[in-house]
Amino acid sequence: MKNIKILMYAITALLAIAIVGCSGSKTQMAVENGSSNGASPSLKEYVVATDASYAPFESLTEKNEFVGFDIDIVKAIADKGGFKVRLVNTPWEGMFATLTNGDRDILISAITITEERSKEMDFSEPYFEAKQSIAAGKDSPVIKFEDLKGKKVGVHTGTTGDIVVTDLLGKDSKDVIRFENTPLALKELENGGVEAVVADNGVVNNYVNNNSDKGLMTVEDESFDKEFYGLVVKKGNKELVDMINEGLKKIKADGTYDEIYKKHFGE
Question: Do the strands 66-67 and 84-89 form a parallel or antiparallel pair, or are they unpaired?
């Protein structure tokens, strides 16, 4: 009887070793495949900065959820490009510094591709065409850009609107009134603190159309050059730029881009 018990213990021990061995092999195989549950390998996540104050490109809902054209675009690009993104609301004036110091990996915030910026950072292929637009009161005499001379003009600090208005009115002009963002400049226009605002046409048109009771109008001027928005990465990060461009190419090819555009601009 004693010998039978010893034999039974031995068999039980061998079975336990075999089970552990099989389990260990499966676990090791899963780890080598990049997953511990048999799923596909996890995708790399990149931190994306956006200044969420520019409807219809980027803004926050009452629940602090990101919405807008840029938001949908970067998510779609990531999906097709094979990576994940995590959005972080980041003030415009400090946004570019966060890229340089490594706190953010990608910037998307209606950022115009310029020669000067391209010296310091790398851009994706263009994903949106824009131009500057003027917002003024409906009874304003402003019918073209030149009419802004001698008037107080609101701009968002450091943007293309700031650049073109500064060129027109002069570097040291006290008539260039700078704000932290375009909605603040437009609110000041409503209150009579400035006589016009110059900013990206998408933002200006969206604001005026959604505030029809404020007595504002938009003025287009053919002298404004076409501008193109791009996603931004740290200078020299070719791998990430290539991934973004691949995702952008795919969403343009399969109709995803057109669907997003129509959702936000209705065209």
Answer: unpaired
pLDDT in tens, 59-105: 999 999 999 999 999 999 999 999 999 999 999 999 999 999 999 99
**How confident is the model over 175-232, as pLDDT tens digits?**
999 999 999 999 999 999 999 999 999 999 999 999 999 999 999 999 999 999 999 9
> Where do we find the tokens 């791009």?
230
Q: Within 10 Å of residue 139's Cβ, how many Cβ atoms?
A: 7
Judge whether 158 and 117 are in contact, CB under 8 Å. no
d(CA 197, CA 208): 11
pTM of the model: 0.79
**Burial code of 164-203, b = ≥16 C-beta within 10 A, e = fewer?**
bbbebbeeeeebbbbbebbbebbbbbbeeebbbbbbbbbb
